[in-house]
Amino acid sequence: MQNYVFMTDSDSDLPFDIAEQRNIPVVRMPYMLDGVEYFDDNGRTGREKELFDRMRKGATPVTSLLPTAAYLEYFEPILAEKDLLFLAFSSQMSATINNIFEAREELLKRYPERKFIVVDTLSISYPQTLLILRAHDMYMKGEPMEAVADWVTNNRLRAHAWLTVDDLVYLKRGGRVSATSAIFGSMLDIKPILTLTKAGKLEAVGKVQGRKKALRTIVDRVAENIEKPEEQEVIILHGDAEEDALLLKDMLTARIPELAGARPHMIGAVIGSHCGPGTLSCCFMGRERPV
Questions:
Q1: Domains of the chain with bracketed CATH
Q2: Alpha carbon distances (Å) from 149 to 41, 50, 118, 192, 288
Q3: What gap in Å lies between CA 124 and CA 63, rounded to an integer?
Q4: pLDDT tens digits, residue range 42-91?
Q5: Dihedral of the alpha carbons of 72, 84, 32, 279, in degrees to the nearest 10
Q6: For the whole model, what pTM was predicted?
């Protein structure tokens, strides 16, 4: 048995059943919908579909930082007994990592004999999960905490997400596009192409006219960047858009026939709050991110 605990957060969109099978503790991130606070449970209750349905009707979910006190509650019972390795979602997406480090500093004062490593994955959603699963395999094989942390640090820029959204209004709310761009983009059926960057940000790197052209562009980016497709499954994240996700799956397997597989998966509630219903994303391991 390892002398440390392997832990992550729900912004990874790590499916709850996989977390349970692997015994990975998960910090649950909060969001507000119509005045009610929820914590993302990564599919356990199936609230994601309800979230997207309500967003289509005009609801505006709001996400928030988990306070330092909450991290202390998650971390202290672990550090009272073992060391801790925590794989965090990208520091460029939120200031919450500052609260993680505040909690870490406080707990190392209380438990000076412990080791507590925090790794900024520079990823979010399923790219983060791809790193988690590979790193956890190392953990299960008995690799020391430092070796696992080093592997994630050295490979985090190989975790990709290429995506498009159905409605620019959600990116406008998050500051990814201007209000003017959102208005004219919606009128002209302009679809942005976004990706995770080397800095760990989600950035628009192109735009095309029409949904199908956006999907073709995503398939092109997967084909250009994926490594060893015969050994991996591309995860197709969708914001309650399974029909389009299945279309994207067919396009991927036609373009990359050696691909081991492609599997649709619903985006989690917190991530979905920012990108909205109809979002489609391909997540995979590949060569280093190009931007």
A1: 4-156 (3.40.50.10170), 158-285 (3.30.1180.10)
A2: 25, 36, 8, 34, 18
A3: 15
A4: 999 999 999 999 999 999 999 999 999 999 999 999 999 999 999 999 99
A5: 160
A6: 0.94
